[in-house]
């Protein structure tokens, strides 16, 4: 990066009151606004399956895909689903139907038509961690249940689940944005978020040195903590995100890569990353 860019970046002084007086640039500049809510009317389609998924095959979307496909692999009754595409690059997340089930306008979102709330409406969920925990507990699969005998296993699962929810924004919204999507490369944010991303990779690599899975060493210990972390960090070290494997020197994280490849080889995961999503017309 040239000295001129460094000087330009360092000369910015924030105003006393921020206003959106110009486009911020970057890949998603055409849809970014500082306001929430629906921008147009659109009714979401509803298929015949009990679960209706509205998503995209980004890392956040893949998390839920994996669990649904793992449940399908086990032929779990009631876990059948229809999957529809929300094209976030075109503002599909701002249609009135989607905003009604997710006021935050982010994918994924899911509606469970086999369950009802107090007012008789189907159960709607947003945030990937909430969806994974809800479905895993609903079907009693891929999560240690709170039955008194699995407290340690459940504590580990919930701890890593929440670790991912708190950590991944630094990877996606931080490193991913400034490394791959920003209108120009800026040294300070790239360095800042690269450092944090590599620290997180080291956290996982150090832990997985002594663990086959996030919550244990047996095949039965594979659970939603693995799924939710793999969607971001597993795909990253396998070279599937941001074309950043060489930049991040992912070969350093041998234990994390071993774990990531083991999960990538699962039939349900292979289907999940390339899940066919029906277009909304």
Automatic annotation (TrEMBL):
<dbReference type="Pfam" id="PF02798">
    <property type="entry name" value="GST_N"/>
</dbReference>
<dbReference type="InterPro" id="IPR036249">
    <property type="entry name" value="Thioredoxin-like_sf"/>
</dbReference>
<dbReference type="InterPro" id="IPR004045">
    <property type="entry name" value="Glutathione_S-Trfase_N"/>
</dbReference>
<protein>
    <submittedName>
        <fullName>GST-like protein</fullName>
        <ecNumber>1.8.4.-</ecNumber>
    </submittedName>
</protein>
<comment type="similarity">
    <text>Belongs to the GST superfamily.</text>
</comment>
<feature type="domain" description="GST N-terminal">
    <location>
        <begin position="52"/>
        <end position="143"/>
    </location>
</feature>
<feature type="domain" description="GST C-terminal">
    <location>
        <begin position="150"/>
        <end position="280"/>
    </location>
</feature>
<feature type="region of interest" description="Disordered">
    <location>
        <begin position="1"/>
        <end position="27"/>
    </location>
</feature>
<keyword id="KW-0560">Oxidoreductase</keyword>
<dbReference type="InterPro" id="IPR010987">
    <property type="entry name" value="Glutathione-S-Trfase_C-like"/>
</dbReference>
<dbReference type="GO" id="GO:0016491">
    <property type="term" value="F:oxidoreductase activity"/>
</dbReference>
<dbReference type="InterPro" id="IPR004046">
    <property type="entry name" value="GST_C"/>
</dbReference>
<feature type="compositionally biased region" description="Polar residues">
    <location>
        <begin position="1"/>
        <end position="13"/>
    </location>
</feature>
<dbReference type="Pfam" id="PF00043">
    <property type="entry name" value="GST_C"/>
</dbReference>
<dbReference type="InterPro" id="IPR036282">
    <property type="entry name" value="Glutathione-S-Trfase_C_sf"/>
</dbReference>
<dbReference type="InterPro" id="IPR040079">
    <property type="entry name" value="Glutathione_S-Trfase"/>
</dbReference>
């Amino acid at each position: 990066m040239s000295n001129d860019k460094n000087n330009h970046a360092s000369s910015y002084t924030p105003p006393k009151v921020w206003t959106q007086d110009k486009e911020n640039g970057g890949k998603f500049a055409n849809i970014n606004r500082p306001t929430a809510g629906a921008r147009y009317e659109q009714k979401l389609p509803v298929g015949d399956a009990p679960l209706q998924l509205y998503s995209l095959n980004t890392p956040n979307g893949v998390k839920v895909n994996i669990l649904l496909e793992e449940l399908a692999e086990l032929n779990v009754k009631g876990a059948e689903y229809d999957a529809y595409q929300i094209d976030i690059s075109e503002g599909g997340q701002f249609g009135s139907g989607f905003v009604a089930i997710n006021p935050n306008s982010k994918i994924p979102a899911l509606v469970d038509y086999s369950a009802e709330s107090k007012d008789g409406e189907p159960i709607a969920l947003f945030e990937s961690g909430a969806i994974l925990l809800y479905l895993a507990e609903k079907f009693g699969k891929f999560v240690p249940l709170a039955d008194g005998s699995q407290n340690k296993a459940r504590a580990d699962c919930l701890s890593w689940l929440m670790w991912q929810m708190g950590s991944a924004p630094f990877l996606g919204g931080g490193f991913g944005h400034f490394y791959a999507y920003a209108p120009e490369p800026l040294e300070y944010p790239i360095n800042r978020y690269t450092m944090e991303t590599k620290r997180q990779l080291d956290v996982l690599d150090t832990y997985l040195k002594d663990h086959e899975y996030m919550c244990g060493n047996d095949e039965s210990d594979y659970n939603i903590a693995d799924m939710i972390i793999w969607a971001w960090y597993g795909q990253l070290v396998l070279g599937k995100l941001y074309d950043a494997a060489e930049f991040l020197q992912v070969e350093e994280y041998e234990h994390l890569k071993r774990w990531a490849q083991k999960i990538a080889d699962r039939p349900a995961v292979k289907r999940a990353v390339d899940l066919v999503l029906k277009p909304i017309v």
